[in-house]
Amino acid sequence: MMSTTASKVRPGHRPHLTSTSDLPLALVFIAPAAVGLIVFLIRPLIMGIYYSFTNFNVLTPPHWAGLKNYAELFADDRFWNSLSVTVEYVIINIGAQTILAVLIAALMHRLTKSTWVRSFVLTPYLVSNVVTALVFLWMLDTQLGIVNHVITSLGGSAVGFWTTESTVIPTVALVNVWRNMGYTALLIFAGLQGIPENLYEAGRTDGATESQMFFRITLPLLRPILALVLIMTIIGSFQVFDTVAVATSGGPADASNVLQMYIYQKAFGEFDFGYASALSVALMIILVIITAIQYKVTRAGETDLD
What we know:
The relative contact order is 0.13. 69% of the residues lie in helices and 1% in strands. The chain is globular and about 75 Å long. Strands 1-2 form a two-stranded antiparallel ribbon. The chain is an all-alpha fold. The protein has helices at residues 4-7, 23-51, 68-74, 77-111, 115-122, 129-139, 146-153, 165-192, 197-205, 210-238, 242-247, 259-269, 273-298; strands at 54-55, 63-64. Helix 3 (68-74) packs across helix 13 (273-298), helix 8 crosses helix 10 and helix 12 (259-269) runs antiparallel to helix 13 (273-298). The chain is built from 13 helices and 2 strands; from the N terminus they run ααββααααααααααα. Residues 1-9 have low confidence and may be disordered.
C-alpha cells in the first residue's frame, strides 16, 4: 500500500529540495589555517622583502635604501663564500642521502614487509636536529670523542672533524645524512608501492637478475617520486642551520658558515636586519630558480606508469 505522501508524487515530477550553501561552514574550517598562513608566512614574506630595500636595525626605524643592500650583497665576499659552502654541503648531503635512501627503500621493498623494520629506519628522524648535533659534537670531539679514541687506539692520528676546514662541511653533511636518510627512504619506499608487482614477475620470467630489475624497472618508474624527494631535500639542505649553529657556529674561519648561518649573524649578531633580509630574499630566489629547473628537467609532474 503506497503512503499518502508517495501517492501525491506525480510521475516525472521532481520534488523541490531546500538546499543550503556549505560555503560558510567551509570558511569556518579553513579560517584557522588561512589565518596561520597569513600571519606566519605571507605577512613575514612581504615584510622581509620590504625590509630588504631598507636600512633597518633594532634601534632605528627602517629607512628606504633602494637597491643598496643588493649592490652590497653582490660585492660581499662573505656572501659568496657562504653560498659556495652551502653548495658544497648540498652536493655531499643530497648525493649521499639519496643513494643510501634508495638502497634502503629498495631493500625494504624487496626483502621485508616488517613494520618494525620501517619504524627502526625512521628512528633517527625522530631525534631533533639540536640533540643530534650535540651527540655527534661529543662523539667526534678531537680529544674526548669516542670516534677519535677508536682511531688513536688503532694507531691512527686524531681527526679534527669539527675544527679542520677540509672536514667540517663533510662532517656536517654526514651528520644530517644519518638523521634524514630514514625519512627519505620511507618517502621513496612509498613510491615503490605504486610499481605493479607483475612487472617484476615478468622480469623474473625473462631471467632478469635483481640488479637488472632495479636499474631497468625500479629506477625509471621511480623517477617522479625521486624528483619530488630531491626538490624537498635540496630546499631543506639549502636551509641548514641547527647543526652548524650548535657544532661550529660557522667556523673554523667561515669554513662552515652556510647561508642561513650568515643571515643569522647579520640579523642577530650585527643587528643589520635590512641586509639580512636581502640575503634571505637572495636565498629564496636561488631556491625558486633551482626548484623550477629541477622540476622541468626531471619531469616531476609526469609518470611512466601508463
